[in-house]
């Protein structure tokens, strides 16, 4: 196999994580449908507000551990230093557990403060239920990082799926049960907020149960893998053994840039809800129930759908880090450039059609999946669909910069993007009547600014020259043609059947087929690249049989 094929083999690992992410997102959409119908847009606003505070504390405590641990372990494994890799794993577990306990305590005892600050005052109960999850995820993160650092993405992929399935089941059941519990309190006290507050808390309970299931699976997998790892430890002949102080310094020096970069990049969601809530409350004097409902549409409908394709880029980013570190450590610049090129191209092959498809079928997809108001989130999707491309590129380029040991650069670039985002959002909300659409517009400009800054940085440090024709132009042409056909098919089916769900599903299936055919006709992908994908040999076999290859 050619060097390019060997270099691109990491795409298979990225594809495994991408497939699990797609499946998890599909499960996430499916369980959010009954959850949204139980809680309504107002309840989803409280659920989202609580979840975003939790997400930031998770970022600060343990979310970045898989990336940091995989970076440290893969660097040692590449040199055959298995004993040092084992010590890094043990010390990382202790470090992460301490951070998890600290963040969990802050979340539990500071729930009322967080709820008051964000102006979603009834989200405190949900925050308290989320607090123990931070402790569980601190260990989960290290275990995932260990397996990724060893070059295996399967444990992470399977644990993600198990986590999401159990999360879905428990979230829906607990939300329904606790919403009913809160309704009885409202009836007895003559209040009207307990149902949505307790219902939102029930929705967050599934997150903790899902994390626990993931931990149990990863711990079981590690106990099996431990026997194989011990044999590698016995073959370790490295002379220098890292001390606990050395490892602590490595963890801190590695994780701080990762935490800062990841937190800055992801804190925009919490800032969105906080700025939106405060300006709507204090400047526009809008009722909490009204702006909570609008933000519930943004986070529970619009953001939920746009995050599905972006998660593919995040999965590929997790896979590229250990592989890039290995190539960069060897000084193999050619291999580094090939991997960067392949990862960006693979991401665009999926992000571009997703963006076009979401734009064309924005309101039909909303009507297919959700109840209540679908016109407003449909408009959000039409405005913000292009953010899928920008978020995907910025995610993968952040990981490229981290993989080539430029840890500070993503922090600087994300900080600049965040400042632009906050200024534009605040000005639009305060001086116009755009309301929730101002959040969508600023949400597009945030990743766009990071994309541009990251592109300049990558070119500067590894002299990377972006290939445009096969990466952007051909997929773009294929996606536009797909979008036109999809729109016409949807309209035709809607006239014929008059049922949105049937018309939408048929249109989506046609879109997949048309886009795949167009990629082959425009030669945007070749047989070698198809082979690197999961079940690629079957795809090739089918395409050859129908004469497309």
Give a description of the structure.
The chain has 549 residues and is mostly helical. It has two domains: 3-466, no CATH class; 478-549, no CATH class. Helices cover 86% and strands 0% of the residues. It has 21 helices and no strands. It has helices spanning 3-7, 10-63, 65-78, 82-109, 111-118, 124-149, 154-189, 194-234, 244-266, 268-282, 288-330, 333-360, 362-369, 375-384, 387-403, 408-431, 436-462, 469-497, 500-521, 527-531, 536-545. The longest helix is centred in the N-terminal third of the chain and has 54 residues, at 10-63. It starts with a helix and ends with a helix.
Average pLDDT, to the nearest integer?
A: 82
**How many whole angstroms does the radius of gyration measure?**
23 Å
**N-to-C terminal Cα separation, in Å?**
20 Å
The low-confidence parts are 1-8
Decide which structural class fits the backbone.
mainly alpha
Q: Please estimate the helix content.
A: over 70%
Biggest sheet character: none
- Which geometry do the CA atoms define? globular
Strand content: under 5%
Q: How many strands appear in the DSSP assignment?
A: 0
Count of helical regions: 21
Count of domain modules: 2
H/E series, N to C?
HHHHHHHHHHHHHHHHHHHHH
Keywords:
21 helices; 2 domains; mainly alpha; 549 residues
Briefly, what is this?
The chain contains 21 helices and no strands.
Secondary structure blueprint with pairings:
Blueprint: H1 3-7, H2 10-63, H3 65-78, H4 82-109, H5 111-118, H6 124-149, H7 154-189, H8 194-234, H9 244-266, H10 268-282, H11 288-330, H12 333-360, H13 362-369, H14 375-384, H15 387-403, H16 408-431, H17 436-462, H18 469-497, H19 500-521, H20 527-531, H21 536-545
Helix pairs in contact: 2-4, 2-6, 2-7, 2-8, 2-9, 2-10, 2-11, 3-4, 3-6, 3-9, 3-11, 4-6, 4-9, 5-6, 6-8, 7-8, 9-16, 10-11, 10-16, 11-12, 11-14, 11-15, 12-15, 12-18, 13-14, 14-17, 15-17, 16-17, 18-19
């Amino acid at each position: 196999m050619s060097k390019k094929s060997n270099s691109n083999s990491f795409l298979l690992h990225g594809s495994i994580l991408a497939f699990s992410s797609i499946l998890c997102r599909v499960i996430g959409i499916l369980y959010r449908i009954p959850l949204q119908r139980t809680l309504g847009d107002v309840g989803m606003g409280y659920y989202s507000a609580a979840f975003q505070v939790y997400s930031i504390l998770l970022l600060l405590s343990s979310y970045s551990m898989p990336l940091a641990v995989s970076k440290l372990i893969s660097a040692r494994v590449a040199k055959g230093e298995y004993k040092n890799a084992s010590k890094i794993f043990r010390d990382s577990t202790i470090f992460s557990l301490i951070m998890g306990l600290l963040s969990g305590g802050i979340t539990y005892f500071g729930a009322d403060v967080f709820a008051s600050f964000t102006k979603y005052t009834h989200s405190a109960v949900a925050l308290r239920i989320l607090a123990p999850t931070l402790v569980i995820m601190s260990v989960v993160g290290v275990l995932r990082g260990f397996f990724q650092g060893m070059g295996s993405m399967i444990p992470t992929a399977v644990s993600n799926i198990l986590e999401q399935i159990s999360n879905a089941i428990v979230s829906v059941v607990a939300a329904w049960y606790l919403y009913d519990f809160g309704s009885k309190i409202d009836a007895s006290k003559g209040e009207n907020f307990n149902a949505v507050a307790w219902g939102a808390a029930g929705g967050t309970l599934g997150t903790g149960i899902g994390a626990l299931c993931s931990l149990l699976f990863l711990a079981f997998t590690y106990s099996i893998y431990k026997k194989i790892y011990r044999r590698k430890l016995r073959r370790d002949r490295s002379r220098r053994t890292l001390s606990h102080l050395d490892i602590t310094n490595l963890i801190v020096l590695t994780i701080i840039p990762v935490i800062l970069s990841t937190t800055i990049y992801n804190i925009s969601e919490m800032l969105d809800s906080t700025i939106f809530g405060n300006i709507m409350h204090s400047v526009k004097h809008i009722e909490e129930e009204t702006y909570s409902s609008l933000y519930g549409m943004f986070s529970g409908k619009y953001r939920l759908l746009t995050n599905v394709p972006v998660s593919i880029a995040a999965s590929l980013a997790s896979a590229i880090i250990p592989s890039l570190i290995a190539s960069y450590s060897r000084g193999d610049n050619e291999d580094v450039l090939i991997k960067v090129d392949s990862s960006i191209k693979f991401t665009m092959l999926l992000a571009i059609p997703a963006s076009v498809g979401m734009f064309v079928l924005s309101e039909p997809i909303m009507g297919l999946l959700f109840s209540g108001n679908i016109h407003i989130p449909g408009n959000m999707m039409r405005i913000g669909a292009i953010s899928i491309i920008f978020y995907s590129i910025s995610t993968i380029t952040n990981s490229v910069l981290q993989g080539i040991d430029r840890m500070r650069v993503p922090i600087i670039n994300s900080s600049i993007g965040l400042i632009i985002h906050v200024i534009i959002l605040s000005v639009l909300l305060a001086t116009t009547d755009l309301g929730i659409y101002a959040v969508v517009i600023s949400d597009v400009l945030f990743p766009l600014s990071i994309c541009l800054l990251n592109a300049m940085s990558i070119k500067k440090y590894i002299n990377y020259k972006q290939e445009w024709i096969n990466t952007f132009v051909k997929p773009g042409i294929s996606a536009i043609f797909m979008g036109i056909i999809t729109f016409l098919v949807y309209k035709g089916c809607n006239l014929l059947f008059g049922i949105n769900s049937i018309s939408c599903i048929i249109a989506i299936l046609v879109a997949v087929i048309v886009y795949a055919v167009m990629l082959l006709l425009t030669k945007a992908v070749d047989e070698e690249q198809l082979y690197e994908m999961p079940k690629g040999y079957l795809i090739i076999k089918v395409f050859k049989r129908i004469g497309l290859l």
